[in-house]
Amino acid sequence: MKADRFITPAAWALVTVAIVTLPASRSQDLGGVISFLTGFAILVAIFAILALGLNVQWGYTGIFNFGVVAFFMVGAYTAAIITKGPATTEYVRYVGGFGDKLDFIPFLDSEQWLPFLFGTAGAAIVAGALAFVLSIPTLRLREDYLAIATIGIAELLRRIAIEEKGLVNSDRGLIGIPSPLEDLVNPPEYKFIFFGVVVGLVILILIALEAGSRSPWGRVLKAIREDETTAAAAGKDIFNFKMQSFVVGAMIMGVGGAAYAYYSRSVSPDAFTHFFGTFLIWAMLIVGGSGNNKGAILGAYIVWGFYSITGLMRAYFADWGLEFLELRMSFLRDFVVGALIVIVLLLRPAGLLPEERRVSLFMQREDKQPTPPGEPESGPTGSRADAPPDREKGSGGQAS
Hints:
With 400 residues, this protein is an all-alpha fold. The protein has a single domain (2-22, 30-363), classed as Orthogonal Bundle (ABC transporter involved in vitamin B12 uptake, BtuC), CATH 1.10.3470. The protein is built from 15 helices and two strands. The chain has helices at residues 2-20, 30-61, 68-83, 114-138, 143-163, 190-213, 216-226, 228-233, 238-264, 274-288, 293-319, 323-327, 329-347, 361-368, 389-393, and strands at residues 174-175, 266-267. A two-stranded antiparallel ribbon has the order 1-2. Helix 2 (30-61) packs across helix 7, helix 2 (30-61) crosses helix 11 and helix 3 packs across helix 10 (274-288). The longest helix has 32 residues, at 30-61. The chain is globular, with a radius of gyration of 24 Å. The relative contact order is 0.15.
């Protein structure tokens, strides 16, 4: 079983590698292949951030948030209006435009990175504030009603972005969003710089969440997920901890939205659909393994690999004369994602990397401490080595 735990995810990852590298068979240009793979890896990292945020809410606490796209969109728009300059024409109207005023350090090329720190922090804060406000009326709802409420809220925010002409430029969206460190290298090489930036974000978030999941806070969240009544009986404020989880997950989603805005350099309401901004994120977490941060990252890689490459299969079908499939590729790629979820749920219901059952960091440190001289050693469960047979055997005091 332990071997299967690692072999199966590795096999899925290798299959995805083979699928992702299919474009190489159509092109002899190595530079083009590397450019494509780098862009693919950047989007995987961005989706991994969103999946990690959802994992805090659903994987840790059991909060059924089906409005991920709301925090994704809010994070992207917030980062855009903070880092862009002010609107200059009557045809482009939006609030904010503080980018030119955030370069107040006269050295270290601060214009290349300082506005983006403010933009990313602002995206996290606004998304977290939105989650805090929404949590008050929604988190007391039952799971199915909570899902319906979050879907409605996400669509409401999307309609506000479209209808309010002077908020974020309506349905025309925002273009020309600057990217961090973009003037340090030539444009063709910039994708490698941004790849390092977004991977760094994933690593920082992963380290923080791994530490948090093994802290008392993380153990309370998982206790609430397993049994709210028992956690409440232990004296835990269920609503307060749920709110904390909801806000932290939303802040991480806001960071993912900021990274998406910097990479795409444009955002519009059409980009933030429920399928693209919510369903795919849920698919990534389900496939990778709910409750496991590494599983969320693996799921982002596998699901986006299948989804993005099936979109490129249109060219292959055209070469093979399969016009029937070529014209229906947009439907087939959705079918592929759905079939992928079903296959994984049938073969590995807990995901490719199921949640690991681990003790707390405190208990782990206690087990590693050397036993003082003259005191009995403890076993793996803390039982005394010289305990009488009835404690060790559990057979009514009789040793077999």
